[in-house]
Write a structure and sequence with these properties.
single chain; 10-stranded mixed barrel; mainly beta
Length: 219
């Protein structure tokens, strides 16, 4: 069970960011004082500048990125299928499932969670290539890891759920994620005097967008 209260900050980057690569670790690991982060590098489409979301939580002492704060938000993230989280589900902004297999399909599972919990804005569950996130307006985002990175592994699915929640809270275009390079990792402030930020890369993800058919009711 991960921390329920999550603090997310989305920045429009104003300085170069140093990317490093090493063994993939989960976002809950205390990776040398760094915080889980997701970097979006635009290629084509409505986005123009790189954006970085950091999940500060208890590790905020590492420092925050240099750039314009698009949105800062605190929300509740819990598991949708963990008995220990039952009393938190009605308060949750993001619900994360850990089901495996294709029956029922992941789209049906996230739709069912959204139907049962009207206060939930983003529901996430595993799918064969990573995880699937459903949003209150009927849009779906399939998040697939590449090059051996598992976007659906616990708790990366929760990190992507918070990312989408924060992205939408900042009124950012979802369409821009489908054409951007999306990189997950851990952010920290580097040792350089200018405080250049560093992102220790865990892996890349590809985001595909779809929409739940109008009028469809989860079974």
């Amino acid at each position: 069970m991960f921390e329920k209260l999550t603090a997310a900050h989305l920045f429009r980057l104003g300085r170069p960011l140093c990317l490093t690569r090493g063994p993939a670790v989960s976002p809950s690991a205390k990776h040398r004082g760094a915080v889980p982060a997701i970097l979006v590098i635009p290629r084509v489409g409505p986005l123009r500048e790189p954006h970085l979301m950091v999940l500060a939580g208890e590790f905020a002492s590492c420092g925050l990125p240099a750039g314009d704060l698009v949105v800062g938000d605190t929300h509740i993230v819990v598991h949708s299928d963990d008995a220990a989280d039952r009393r938190w589900r009605e308060l949750a902004d993001v619900l994360v499932g850990r089901s495996e297999g294709s029956c029922p399909p992941p789209a049906d599972r996230v739709a069912r969670v959204l139907d049962r919990h009207p206060g939930c804005a983003v529901a996430v569950d595993r799918c064969p290539r990573g995880c699937l996130a459903g949003m209150r307006d009927g849009r779906l985002a399939e998040i697939a890891g590449t090059a051996g990175f598992s976007a659906g592994a616990d708790p990366w699915a929760a990190a992507f759920g918070s990312f989408l929640y924060c992205w939408r809270a900042g009124r950012m275009p979802l369409e821009g994620l489908a054409t951007a390079s999306v990189i997950a990792g851990h952010y920290s402030t580097g040792p350089a005097a200018d405080g250049t930020g560093r992102l220790h890369v865990a892996g890349r993800a590809r985001i595909r967008l779809a929409r739940r058919p109008v009028g469809e009711v989860a079974r």
